[in-house]
């Protein structure tokens, strides 16, 4: 069964186009390292909670929007190998894939407030598939 990395971040609303450009460039690295797909979702219907919610989880400000993302890997071993490669790039930035260079492709959000984790699916239902690798219309 696949392995999922999940992420929640707060992105300044004014940086939406920059975020999309950043993701289009950088997410290809995950695909090249074996990910099956990468999905980046801009908040559309994210209510405020009474005790906690997405906004509070990442300390989003009034001028930021929530992005919920995931990377689907074929298995944990492929994900772990990719993670080790990325850790190596952090230790030796000169060896990093240029798409991950923060000078050439800066994060248009505060990465310190990102929450993330790896997850083993416990239930997976799959319906009929339609065309993939398309950006949905606005």
What attributes does this structure have?
138 residues, alpha+beta, 4-stranded antiparallel β-sheet, 3 helices, globular
The gist of it:
The chain has 138 residues and is an alpha+beta fold. Helix content is 27%, strand content 22%.
Classify the beta-strand content into a percent band: 15-25%
Number of DSSP strand runs = 4
Structural class: alpha+beta
The coarse overall form would be globular
User: What value does the Rg take, in angstroms?
Assistant: 16 Å
Terminal residue distance: 32 Å
| Element string (H = helix, E = strand) | EHEHEHE
Mean pLDDT: 91
Oligomer: single chain
Detail the poorly predicted runs. Answer: none
Number of helices: 3
Structure description:
Helices cover 27% and strands 22% of the residues. The protein has 138 residues and is of the alpha+beta class. The chain is built from three helices and four strands.
Question: What is this structure's SSE topology?
Answer:
Elements: E1 3-12, H1 16-32, E2 37-42, H2 54-57, E3 64-73, H3 76-91, E4 115-119
Antiparallel strand pairs: 1-3, 1-4, 2-3
